[in-house]
Amino acid sequence: MPKSSQHQPVQVPLSELPVGSAGRVRALTGEAEVCQRLREMGFCESAVIQKISGQHTLVCQLCGTRIALSERAAQHIVVELIRGGS
Amino acid sequence: MPLPPHLQPSAPPAPDRRQPVYALVGNPNCGKSTLFNALTGLKQKIGNYPGVTVEKKTGTAWSQHGQPLTVIDLPGAYSLAARSPDEAVLRDVLLGRRTDTPMPDRIICIADSTNLERNLYIVHQILDLGRPVILVLNMMDLAAQAGLDIRVARLSEALGIPVIPCEATNGRGLVELKLAMSRPDLPLPRHSWSIPAPIAAAVSELQASLVENDRRAPLIARAEALLLLTDQDTVRVAGSTTLSPRTLEIFQSWQKRWGTSGTDWAGSLVQSRYDAITGLTANVVRQATAPAGPNTSDRIDAVVTHPVWGWLVLGAVMTALFVSIFTLAQAPMDWIGNHASLLADAVKHRMAPGDLRDLITDGAIGGVGSVITFLPQILILFFFIGLLESTGYMARAAFIMDRLMSRVGLNGKSFIPMLSSYACAIPGIMATRTIEDPKDRLVTILVAPLMSCSARLPVYLLMIAALMPGNQVPVPAKVGLMLLMYALGTLGAFGFAWLFKRTLLKGEPPLMIMELPPYRLPRLRDVLQQMGGRAWIFLRRAGTFILGISIVLWFLAAYPKASAGANPAQQLAQSFAGRAGHALEPVIKPLGFDWQIGIGLISSFAAREVFVSTMGVVFNASADDKENTAPLQQAMGKARWPDGRALFTPLACFSLMIFYVFAMQCMSTIAVVKRETNSWKWPIFQTVYMTGTAWMLSFIVYQTGSALGF
C-alpha cells in the first residue's frame, strides 16, 4: 500500500499504545539497568508487542508469553505502531 | 586465600570418585520444578544456601546403569546477570563461586518451547561456560497447540549438544533425558556468536586477569568476563567468593572508559546475543499454522485480570481460603485436641503422682498437643497457596494487587510474600528473594510479619473462645472478629510500608515486569508434596523447639518448690516463671494483663503459639488436680486478679489480641531476618517498632475501653 508508507510511523511509549493494537519496539529509554532487564526479558529493539489490557498495570503479549508491566516500566519502552495489527 | 579443591581450575571432575552433579537451569515458569520432581521422585533434600535464604533443592536421580546422580534445582532466572539474591545464587553456583556447593559437572537447561527465543537467552549464556550441557525443550505439546513446528535435530546440530523434546507434566521425554544424562561423554557446545568489536578487547583483558588472578578455567573466565560487563551492579550475596583486586581494577578502568565515551556496552552485548539467537531460531522454529484466536488462557485472563471482575475473583478466592481454614479444619482439630487429652489422662492413670508425671502430662503432652492442634489449618493454607501457584493464578493476583501495592510504594511482587505470610512469615520472607530492588525487598521483609500468620491463629482462637464463650454467640460474630484481626494486621503492614517508603527507605516506586504463565491444571502431586514438606517443618518444630520450650516452661513453673502444703497457685507465684511474670507486670498492667499473662508473653517470644501452651501449663498448674485436663478456656474463665475481678474480661482479651496482631513474638522470624539482611540492625529495629506499636495500641484500646466502662 503506497499510501500508508508515506506516513511517518508513530512512535509512542508502550504505556500510551492503544489497547488491542500491536507495536514494534524502537528504543528503550531510562537507566541502563532497567533497559538491560527489559532486553533480557525479550523487549529487544524490533520485537513485536501486542497490548492486551492497560489500566494502570498493563498486560502485553510478547513472543507468545504474557508479561505484566507497571505503567512506569512501560514508559521506558518506545514502540512504533504497526498499522493493521500484527 | 587458597581455593577449595573443587574450585581448582586444573582439576577435572573425577566421575569415578564422587557422584556427578547435574544442575537444572531455566527461566521461571518453564516447568523446571516439575522436571526436577519427575527426575528425583521423593528423594529430595530442601535446605538453604548458607548466608541467604534462597532455597537449595537437591535430589538424587538414577542413571540408566543404576548409578546415583546428584541433581540441584537452581532458582529460575531470565539471565545470569543477577538482579536478585535468587539469581545471584544461580550465577555463583554455575561459576563455581560458592564454597558450599560443588560446581556442577553438567548442566541441564530447560526451555519453554512456546517461547524459545527468550528462553534461549540464558541457555546461550550458559553455553559460553564451555561445560557439557543438555538442552530440554519442555512443553512441546503446548508449542504444537500454538502451531509451532520445532526442528529439534537442527537445533541440536547448530549448538552441538543433545537437545531433548519433553513434556515434563506427563513424563514424555524423561527416558531420553535420562539416557543423555547417563552418557559418559557429553559433547561440549560449539555455538558461535560475535562479540561486538569494541567490547572484545575488554573481554579478553578481563578473561586473562580472571585466569591469572582468580584461577578460573579459561572458558569460565571468558563467560565471567562477559557477565561482568552486563552485570554492572553486581549483586553480591553472602557465601560467594569475591574477585581479586587486580580484576576489579581492570573492570573499573573499562567501566570508566565507556562511561566517558557514552557507549551502551551492556545493551549492545544483550543485543548481539539476541541477534545470534534469532539467527538460530530462524532455522529451527516454524510457525506451521497461525494460532486460532484467543486460547483458554486468554479467555480466563479476560475475566481474571479485568479491572472489576478481577477484584471480585480475588476476593472470592481469599474468602474461600479463609472460610475453608475455619470450617474444614474444625473436625480434625477437635480430634487432635481430644486425643491429646486422652493421652494425658492415660498417662495419669498409669503413673504414680510426681514431678515426672506432671512433666509428661502438663509439660510435654499439654504444650506440644496444643500446638499440633493447628496442623490442619496450616495444611489447608499451604494447600491453597500451592494450588494458586501451580495453576498460575498467583501471578495474576500479584498483577491485580500491583495497583494497590503501588499506592504504598511497593509493587505487585510484594503481594506473594505478604500472602505467604498469612501462613508463616518465614516462607513469606523467603519469597521476597524474587524482589529485585533491595529497598523494596527490605520494606517487604519489615512489614511481612504484620500479616497475621498461622501461629497467631491459636492465640486468636483461644481469645475468641474466652471472649465469646460456648455456643451463645453466633459463628458469624466469631468469624467477624477473626477477620477484624486479619484486617488490622494487613492494614498495619500497608501503613508501615507506606511510612517506611517515605522515610527510612526512600525510593522510586519500583518498576514491575512479571511474566504471567499460562494457566495449567494443578499438579496435585506437586502441590501435596510441597504441602507435606511445609507440614513436616512445622511438626519438626513442634517436636523439637516447642517441646523443649514446653519442658523448660514446666520446669520454670514448678521450681523452686514452695514450702510443703502450699497450694498450686502459691507454687506458681513462687516459681521462676512467676517471678519473671511479676517483674513484667508493671509494664503490661496498663494493657490489662497480669503476671500470669506476662509469663505467656515472655515464653511466646519464642513463637506465638507457645502462648497457648503456656496458658495451658500456667492455668492447669494453678487449678485443682482433678481438673488437670479440663478445657483451658474454663480454667482461664476462673482466673482472677488478686482483688477478685475477672482476669480475662472481654476487653482484656481484645487488648491481648491487638497485642498479638502487632508484636514481633517470633524468634525464628528474627533469625531469618537477620540472615536475610546480614545484620542485626534490621531485626532489632523490626522487633522494636512492632512490639512498640503493639504496646501502644493495646494501651489505647484497654485504657479507652476501661474509661468507657467495658
Any idea what the CATH architecture of the domain at 5-182 in chain B is?
A: 3-Layer(aba) Sandwich
CATH class of the domain at 5-182 in chain B reads Alpha Beta
Q: How many helical elements of chain A?
A: 3
Determine the mean pLDDT of chain B.
Answer: 80
Write out the CATH superfamily name of chain A.
Ferrous iron transport protein A (FeoA)
**Low-pLDDT runs of chain B:** 5-15, 622-630
Task: State which percent range the strand residues of chain A make up.
Answer: 35-45%
- The low-pLDDT segments of chain A are 1-6
CATH H level, superfamily name of the domain at 5-182 in chain B: P-loop containing nucleotide triphosphate hydrolases
Series of H and E elements of chain A: HEEHEEEHE
Give a short overview.
Chain A is an alpha+beta fold.
Characterization of the model:
The complex is a heterodimer of chains A (86) and B (710). Chain A has 86 residues and is of the alpha+beta class. Chain A has a single domain (8-81), classed as Ferrous iron transport protein A (FeoA) (SH3 type barrels, Roll), CATH 2.30.30.90. Chain A contains 3 helices and 6 strands, in the order αββαβββαβ. A 6-stranded antiparallel beta sheet of chain A has the order 1-6-2-3-4-5. In chain A, a hairpin with a 1-residue loop joins β3 (48-55) and β4. Chain A is globular, with a radius of gyration of 12 Å. The two termini of chain A are 16 Å apart. The radius of gyration of chain B is 29 Å and the shape is elongated. In chain B, the strands form 2 sheets. Chain B has a 7-stranded mixed beta sheet with strand order 2-3-4-1-5-6-8, with helices on both faces. In chain B, strands 7-9 form a two-stranded antiparallel ribbon. In chain B, α7 (197-213) runs antiparallel to α9 (245-261), α20 (456-467) packs antiparallel against α28 and α22 runs parallel beside α26. Among the domains of chain B are: 5-182, 3-Layer(aba) Sandwich (Rossmann fold), CATH 3.40.50; 197-266, no CATH class; 541-707, no CATH class. The longest helix of chain B has 35 residues, at 524-558. Mean pLDDT of chain B is 80; it is low at 5-15 and 622-630. With 710 residues, chain B is an alpha/beta fold. The A-B interface holds A 28, 32-42, 44-45, 52-53, 55-57, 59, 62-70, 72-73, 76 and B 78-79, 81, 83, 112, 114-115, 117-118, 121, 146, 230, 232-233, 264, 266-267, 270-271, 274, 297-298, 301, 305-307, 395, 398-399, 402-403, 406, 411-412, 436, 508-518.
